[in-house]
Write a structure and sequence with these properties.
- Helices cover 49% and strands 15% of the residues.
- The chain has 384 residues and is an alpha/beta fold.
- The protein has 3 domains: 68 residues, no CATH class; 195 residues, Periplasmic binding protein-like II (D-Maltodextrin-Binding Protein, domain 2, 3-Layer(aba) Sandwich), CATH 3.40.190.10; 95 residues, 3-Layer(aba) Sandwich (D-Maltodextrin-Binding Protein, domain 2).
- A 5-stranded mixed sheet has the order 6-5-7-14-8, with helices on both faces.
- The longest helix has 29 residues.
- It is globular.
Length: 384
């Protein structure tokens, strides 16, 4: 290309910056530089600028590369809310404590909520991303027009037990008594209703009242203190009370009652926007279930129960652990039969629920994918 040459010395004498002179004239600026052979050659300002840009680009990529690689593998932060402080939340505890969430690229923060309604409102507000809850909360939200989906269920049976103070020995003794629950139309209330049905009792007819008392640990303490007369509690807490002389009136595990266990719930909006993240959480929780049932992992599982329930008697924890194994689902599909039973009970308080189709609130595709790929079977085969 034939361009006028601008002498470097002349430009410098003029006081005009070299780059400005080149841009104004459109000419090449002569720059002496040593070549490999020691022969002086010419390099234009534009050539030099081009080489500088390429050099900077390479440096930028070289420096940025490791940061990008680290960012690519950095775990995704996910808030998981739960209202459960019972051994039913065991798979959630193990997934966190044994690093299954991290294994699948999830930085999970477990947030304890005071109850199902608060959990649902926090999901809708985006304060938590996923809820480890029962289908009861999802059904209640659906009745209010909130679209939540139930993705998993760790069981479709209830292992909880109806406990009463030592003076109550038979069903008739419960008439006129106070039941502790976490909330009305919540899971503890429904477990109480299922236990009363098994005994042939009806709350209105038999003058039985329900008192919101707090979470199951608090309910157990209230029962010991005499503030309530009875409560349906998880296996570990129930065993502890039995050892103190309290009456066990109904073991729902023996009644073979269908009911939706704890599982993963999510808003439709979050599911649509973050399906890969949701799938990873489902995978981690599914692997956690396999870990729990493996005999070799029993000491670790018992330690987790003791720590999270703040219990110290190994024999009671052992019995509670065995009760959990009876109802855990190896393939955690959301339970349609359990949801229908919960819907039946909830409709007693809210007739709108009778019109819902439970099929519309479940989304089993992530569990189905793990199942059909053989992933779940491989998990359990590897434990032997």
């Amino acid at each position: 290309m034939n361009r006028a040459m601008v002498d470097r010395a002349a430009v410098q004498k003029s006081g005009v910056p070299l780059r400005d002179a080149a841009q104004r004239t459109g000419a090449w600026v002569s720059l002496h530089f040593p070549t490999k052979r020691g022969i002086k050659g010419w390099m234009s300002c534009r050539e030099r600028a081009f080489i500088s840009k390429v050099t900077y680009a390479f440096l930028f990529v070289a420096l940025l590369g490791p940061w990008k690689a680290a960012a690519a593998v950095a775990p995704v932060h996910v808030n998981i809310g739960t209202a459960s402080v019972t051994s039913s939340a065991l798979s959630l505890w193990i997934a966190q404590e044994r690093g299954f969430f991290n294994k699948y690229g999830i930085d999970a923060q477990i947030i304890l909520m005071p109850g199902g309604p608060t959990l649902v409102s926090s999901l809708v507000a985006g304060e938590i991303h996923l809820g480890f809850t029962t289908g009861v909360s999802v059904l209640g939200a659906a009745a209010q027009g909130t679209e939540l989906k139930m993705l998993t269920s760790i069981s479709n049976r209830v292992s909880w037990k109806l406990m009463a103070n030592p003076q109550i020995r038979k069903a008739q003794d419960l008439r006129g008594k106070r039941f502790g629950v976490q909330s009305i139309i919540g899971s503890t209330w429904m477990n109480s209703m299922l236990a009363l049905e098994a005994l042939g009792l009806e709350p209105k007819r038999d003058n039985i009242t329900f008192l919101p008392t707090g979470d199951p640990v608090t309910m157990s303490q209230a029962l010991e203190a005499g503030r309530i007369d009875a409560a349906v509690l998880d296996p570990a807490l129930s065993r502890r009370l039995v050892s103190k002389g309290f009456s066990l009136l109904v073991d729902l595990a023996q009644e073979n009652v269908s009911f939706p266990g704890l599982g993963l719930g999510v808003t439709r909006a979050y599911l649509d926007q973050h399906a890969p993240i949701v799938e990873k959480v489902v995978t981690a929780l599914t692997e956690s279930l396999a870990f729990i049932v493996a005999p070799a992992n029993k000491p670790v599982v018992l330690k987790s129960i003791m720590k999270n329930l703040r219990m110290s008697d190994p024999s009671l924890i052992e019995e509670g652990y065995q009760d959990q194994l009876l109802t855990l689902a190896r393939k955690p599909y959301p339970s349609l039969d359990g949801l229908r039973n919960a819907q039946r009970l909830m409709a007693l308080q809210n007739p709108k629920l009778a019109k819902l189709r439970v099929e519309d609130i479940v989304e089993p595709r992530f569990v189905r994918k793990l199942d059909e790929s053989g992933f779940i079977d491989r998990l359990y085969n590897s434990q032997h």
